[in-house]
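Revision sheet: C-alpha cells.
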Amino acid sequence: MKQTAGNAPPPAMKSRPLVGLFMRLAYRADRLRRALSAPVSVGVRVLLVRDRQVLLVRHTYSPGLQLPGGGVKRGETLEQAARREAREEAGAEIGEMSLFGLYSKTTGWISDHEPVFLATDFELAEQHSFEIESCAFYSLDNLPADLVPSARRRIEEYRSGAGHVILGQR
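Predicted:
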C-alpha cells in the first residue's frame, strides 16, 4: 500500500490512465443503472483514526479524498461490509469498531443510506484494491483541500467529540 505523510496530494495516476478512465465510466454507468433499477442503496464508510490522523483513500473513478467504504453485498451485514471495504480499499484489518453515525441522502430517484463506523484498533497491510489510486494518513488538524464534503463533515463530527451515534443527512 502506498502511504504518504502530510497533506500533499498524491501524484496523478500516470501509469494506468486507461484503468482510471474505465473505472470512472463504469462508476457512472452503475450509478445510472442503480437509479433506474434499485433506487434505494445501502453503503458503509469507515473512519480509521490513529495518533490524531485519519486514513483517507482516493478512488480511480471519482475525484477527491474520502473515507474507505462502499456498497453492502447481498447476504452481508453492515459490520461485515465495513470490515470488507476497509480491507479492500485500505488494507486495514479492523479489531474493535463501533457505529459512529447513520446518514441518509435523497436525490432524484435515489435514496442512499450509509452507516459510518469508527475504528481505532486496526492493522495495515501493504496492499489494497486496484480501484484505489492512493491511501494515506492525514492530520485531523489539517485536512486536505480536496476532501469530499461528506467525509469532511464526518471528521469534524469526530473532532467535536460528540461521543454518541449521530443521525443525519450526508
